[in-house]
Each structure stands twice: as C-alpha cells, then as structure tokens.
C-alpha cells in the first residue's frame, strides 16, 4: 500500500481537499456561461429569465430591448425599449420550436455577433423550456379552456384578496355577474358547437368592454363575473351598457337572439365573499325578472 498515493490539492478559500482535476472545476465555476446557466435556473418566470439573459447578452451587443414570442404570448425583459430594429432568432431544442427571441438594437448585427449570440442561446434553451412547461401547466390550472378567461378557482382567490384589501385600505370595488339569455335554446336548436362559439364571442366582448385594471372570469356554462376596480357606482352602469351594446351589435349573438342579463353591486366594509356575491346575484335575478337584457342592482 505504500505505493498508492491520492492526488489532491487544497483550495485555500474553502480549507478542504478536492480531486486533482479541481482546477477544471474551479475554471468551470468561473466560466460566465456556467454562471449564466446557474442564474437562469433560479426562476420559472419568462420575463425574469429574459432580464437575466439580457444582462449577459449586453456583453456582446448593446441591446435596448429583448422579447420572446411563443404560443403563450409575448414576454420581455424588464424596461425593454422596443423602438429600434428587431433581430429575430428561432430557438429550437431537440427539433422542438420553443419560440422566437427578438433583440432590439440601435446598431446592425454582424454575422460574427449573431454567431456569438447563437452560442449564448444554448445556455437559455433548457431553462426556457422548463419555464414554458411550467407556465402552460399553470395556465391550464387557472384559465377556462374554452374562453381563455380566468376560471372560478381564480375568481374565489381574487375576490377574497380584494375584500381583504378593501378592509385594510378602504379601497372599494364592484362585483358584476352576467349570464346569457336564451343560451339553452342555442344548444338545443343549433348544437353545442354553436353554443361554444357564442361563449367565445361573449368572452371576447367582455374583455373588450372592461379596462386593464378589471378582471373577467367564467364560472362555467354561461355564467361570467367581473371584478371592477372602481369605487364609483356609475362605472358599473357604463360597463354594463357597453357590454349590452356590444352584444346587440354582434352579428352572431343577435342572429341567435342571445342577450345578457347583468347584476352588480358596490363592496361594503362589512362584506365577506358570500355576502357580496349574494347581493350581486340578487341583482342578476332582478334583471331576469324585469324581462332580461338589462342590468340591475340589489
């Protein structure tokens, strides 16, 4: 055994021993690409991935903005300035097209710069695919599959959060419930595919009629809800009239004699989820009792 030797070296900063090839390990740790991979693996949010990646890409080019286009939509780095010329790169991993990475740069990219960026993309591929997979699963769990609206589970969570915020900050909001008049007749006479088309069109109308601060939900069937981030009672009337006007002027819905009934209410300091929902539901039933195709408050 006297001829057996273990080759090791001390790393002064750690005070322990590593195998003889530890120099390669230390160099790999210092490799900027390796550090980039480690940083990219710390998040599953695509915007954050792009922000981290952009910090490294800026060592190669002076970019002003960075976007990623995929089936999930458009994501971009923090404070992305997209006014300059776009340079597009398709990202592929094992013959799977992940999406398109778009650089915005004031200066033209040479072939050598493009080649360097393509090599840098290799560090992004797996973290990006993981983030895409995570966000697709998350979307399935929180979105209505047919209309793309937030589902009832999200509505329940968001309503509870909004009521708690109302209590703490005395920041009032409105709740609106909507359903479609004569929807069962559409399914019975024209089939469920026509009914699905009506739901998709109505969901689109709702998204077009609210502001970016408001949130639209589908419970299932022909039942929908809107949380309106506004303390003014008249805002409910404006949104309700806007929705009913859009429904009346929609060729598909008017052809099938589909209208909408709406109930709404303002939040109160004593409200819980069930009380504000019940009050809004009473407004909806009142709209039904008053002949449908109208908006009422309890």
From TrEMBL:
According to its UniProt record, the EC number is 2.7.7.65
Q: What are the residue boundaries of the GGDEF domain, all occurrences included?
A: 171-298
Instruction: Cite the InterPro entries for this sequence.
Output: Diguanylate_Cyclase, GGDEF_dom, Nucleotide_cyclase, Rev_trsase/Diguanyl_cyclase
This protein's source sits in the domain of life called: Bacteria
GO annotations of cellular component type: plasma membrane
Can you name one GO molecular function term for this protein?
Answer: diguanylate cyclase activity
What's an example Gene Ontology biological process for this entry? negative regulation of bacterial-type flagellum-dependent cell motility
CDD domains, alphabetically?
GGDEF
Give, as one word, the top-level EC class.
Answer: transferase
Q: What is this protein called?
A: diguanylate cyclase
Q: Which organism is it from?
A: Pseudoalteromonas holothuriae
